[in-house]
Recover the amino acids of this structure.
């Protein structure tokens, strides 16, 4: 077999063939793993709902709610349960980008729990939000930083550092993340209150 000449048409042809083959393999693998990825995401969401609602609960079909916040259209998802409502909320102003939380509210509007679904915050700093705002019994930093049991209609879910009546201690060296987290929780509550 004769060796191909090293010229532009031959190189383009070989690169095109390799790119098409690789693209086909990637599409096949993506298609093959699509169902397991969706199932894993659904299982993680179900576990998150149980976590924020304080245990096993019956979940109704979710409602998607579009709200305009600070001039941006944001999507919220409400999961009504027999214990209250879990709201998925995203704040686009985290230090690393979007910060998505799932917050559970009882029928009186008190926060039962939360979990972080998506974050790009700095590991070791902003990523501490998953525990920082929990109750002390659940690994939280302090009662002054915990949002569990608070009602956003009655409590100021803003950082104390801002001197505007905020009641929550920010994560050390991660004030931007703390503000984004608390805004996401507040907007989750606002969505809950507007759509009871």
């Amino acid at each position: 077999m004769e060796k191909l000449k090293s010229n532009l048409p031959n190189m383009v042809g070989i690169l095109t063939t390799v790119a098409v083959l690789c693209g086909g393999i990637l599409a096949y693998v993506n298609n093959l793993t699509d169902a397991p990825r969706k199932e894993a995401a659904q299982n993680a969401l179900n576990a998150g709902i149980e976590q924020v609602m304080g245990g096993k609960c019956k979940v109704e079909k979710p409602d998607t709610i579009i709200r305009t916040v600070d001039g941006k259209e944001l999507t919220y998802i409400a999961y009504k349960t027999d214990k209250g409502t879990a709201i998925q909320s995203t704040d686009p102003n985290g230090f690393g980008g979007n910060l998505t939380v799932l917050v559970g509210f009882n029928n009186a509007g008190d926060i039962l729990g939360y979990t972080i679904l998506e974050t790009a915050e700095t590991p070791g700093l902003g990523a501490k939000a998953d525990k920082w705002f929990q109750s002390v019994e659940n690994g939280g930093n302090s009662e002054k930083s915990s949002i569990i049991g608070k009602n956003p209609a009655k409590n100021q879910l803003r950082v104390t550092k801002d001197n505007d009546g905020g009641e929550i201690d920010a994560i050390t060296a991660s004030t931007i993340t703390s503000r984004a987290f608390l805004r996401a929780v507040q907007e989750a509550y606002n969505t809950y209150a507007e759509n009871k």
Observations:
- The mean pLDDT is 89.
- The CA atoms of residues 101 and 157 lie 15 Å apart.
- The first helix runs from residue 8 to 53.
- The helical segments are 8-53, 129-132, 175-194.
